[in-house]
Design brief:
Radius of gyration: 19 Å
Biased composition (Acidic residues): 109-123
Distance between the termini: 55 Å
Shape: globular
Largest sheet: 2 strands, antiparallel
Region (Disordered): 108-132
Structural class: mainly alpha
């Protein structure tokens, strides 16, 4: 059964256009090539994960915009307009391409600190009845 990535064009600054992109062989190939390019370009030499993420951000934004423009067949003007749109929205579209077309997923950009705090509270709760 065919899989689709669907999104409202206004999310990437293209008004009055909805996108429904099928998992054609051509689109799967494009997604794979862009993902491989991203992985090859990702600099992992810095041991500090924050510096690593920040250092790779320009490359990530460029590669993700290139992927969307290529797979969605955007014009040069539409592609240029991606620079002024939400990176989080573009990241989610890119991730949808990976999930639906390749069966892989990028890490979430969401702040997971709330989940970590909840876990630490459970682990260190002094009122727990199991600690007798």
């Amino acid at each position: 059964m065919a899989k689709y990535v669907e999104f409202d064009g206004s999310v990437i600054g293209i008004e009055n256009k909805n996108f429904k992109i099928i998992d054609s062989s051509k689109n799967v190939k494009k997604a794979a090539q862009h993902y491989q390019s991203l992985i090859k370009r990702f600099d992992t030499e810095d041991e500090d994960s924050i510096k690593q993420l920040v250092g790779n951000s320009p490359m990530l934004t460029e590669e993700i915009a290139n992927t969307i423009a290529d797979i969605a067949d955007l014009s040069a003007k539409e592609k240029a307009g991606l620079q002024d749109q939400s990176f989080s929205d573009q990241y989610n579209i890119f991730n949808d391409f990976l999930i639906k077309f390749l069966g892989i997923q990028m890490p979430s950009l969401d702040d997971d600190s709330d989940e970590d705090e909840d876990d630490s509270e459970v682990e260190t709760d002094p009122k727990s009845p199991d600690e007798n």
